[in-house]
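for the recovery benchmark. tokens below, seq after
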């Protein structure tokens, strides 16, 4: 990999265009979760140390090439300044003919954040003229935004054609952790996978069945599996017309000797705000919905994790937003955390909801690696080549 860490580059006085992902959750103008900002600090600190002129490129939301005031990066630039404990200059204008002279004026070792890159029309269309325009702002380009690297956008893919380009520290760690999970595996290896739709994760499951020993299916995906094996799931989240997908999973699991585990007992309620009641999976009434896994299932999962050397987790076990249905997710976190801390397993977690659950229970340090990426994380696990990664590997 063409990493900034591998290069003995003299960056003093060089303008470094640093693409990061600062698309953090916000409520009424305030940032509610900062892990994406925290993860880019090591790369910025390294560049400050090397006396580079750091120009931060990022986005928030989907403004579709128009200026949307609520999607300004200004509050994020202030948060970054707090975390770095130094001034971060903020350039409010969209990229224009004055941007280069403004960038040139910044002192060595300082940081300037440009306004939301997606306010510019050519970004999401990967317009070659816009890619060239942004490349002219810097001497080198660093991608440290793994979570955006599945997008063929100008500041991710197009720019690499016009400027020397490198991987950042964060993206390096992300790819190495996922490589370890998918290639350099220490068996037995277990996947815990949840989410509402099995159809969106079928490719991941089929890709990993060949390499993994156990696949534990929870959440809405498990309801679909259960329904198609003839069980009643009441009014639970569930997909129809998935017979072929489930048949494919079961056939592949037999072919590759990978065990598929679904819940044997669950916690049900008549609505999302309810209290919750433990039930065997064969006893669900028509007016009930499955909102968590039950104690027998938790016990089975704990045993499987105890017998594993590698664990990959994507998707909570239930509707953890309500404390009555958070036990399954919390217990999985506890056992993975305990095993990781004792150096007994290599554990990776990723995806938006999974990270939200980890943060809720303050377990961010309890995994070997936590990926803040959503789409890119899932596409990598599907075995897809990500445009941002491919571009960096090609344009070295």
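predicted aa per position
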């Amino acid at each position: 990999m063409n990493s900034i860490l591998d290069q003995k580059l003299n960056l003093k006085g060089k303008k470094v265009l640093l693409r990061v992902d600062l698309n953090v959750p916000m409520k009424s103008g305030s940032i509610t979760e900062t892990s994406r900002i925290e993860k880019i600090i090591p790369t910025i600190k390294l560049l400050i140390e090397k006396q580079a002129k750091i120009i931060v490129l990022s986005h928030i939301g989907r403004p579709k090439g128009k200026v949307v005031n609520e999607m300004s990066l200004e509050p994020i630039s202030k948060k970054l300044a707090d975390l770095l404990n130094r001034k971060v200059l903020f350039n409010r204008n969209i990229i224009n003919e004055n941007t280069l002279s403004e960038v040139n004026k910044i002192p060595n070792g300082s940081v300037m954040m440009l306004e939301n890159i997606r306010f510019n029309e050519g970004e999401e269309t990967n317009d070659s003229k816009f890619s060239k325009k942004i490349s002219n702002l810097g001497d080198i380009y660093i991608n440290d935004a793994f979570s955006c690297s599945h997008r063929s956008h100008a500041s991710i893919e197009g720019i690499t054609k016009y400027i020397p380009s490198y991987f950042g520290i964060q993206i390096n760690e992300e790819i190495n952790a996922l490589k370890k999970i998918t290639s350099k595996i220490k068996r037995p290896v277990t996947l815990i996978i949840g989410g509402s739709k099995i159809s969106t994760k079928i490719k991941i499951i089929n890709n990993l069945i060949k390499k993994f020993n156990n696949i534990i299916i929870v959440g809405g995906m498990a309801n679909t599996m259960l329904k198609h094996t003839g069980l009643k799931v009441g009014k639970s989240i569930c997909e129809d017309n998935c017979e072929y997908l489930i048949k494919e999973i079961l056939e592949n699991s037999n072919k590759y000797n990978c065990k598929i585990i679904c819940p044997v007992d669950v916690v049900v309620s008549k609505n999302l705000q309810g209290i919750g009641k433990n039930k065997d999976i064969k006893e669900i009434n028509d007016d009930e919905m499955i909102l968590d896994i039950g104690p027998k299932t938790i016990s089975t999962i704990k045993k499987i994790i105890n017998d594993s050397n590698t664990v990959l987790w994507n998707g909570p076990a239930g509707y953890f937003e309500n404390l009555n249905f958070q036990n399954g997710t919390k217990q999985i976190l506890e056992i993975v955390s305990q095993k990781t801390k004792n150096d007994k397993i290599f554990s990776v977690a990723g995806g938006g909801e999974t990270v939200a659950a980890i943060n809720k229970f303050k377990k961010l340090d309890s995994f070997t690696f936590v990926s803040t990426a959503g789409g890119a994380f899932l596409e990598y696990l599907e075995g897809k080549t990500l445009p941002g990664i491919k571009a960096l590997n090609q344009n070295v």
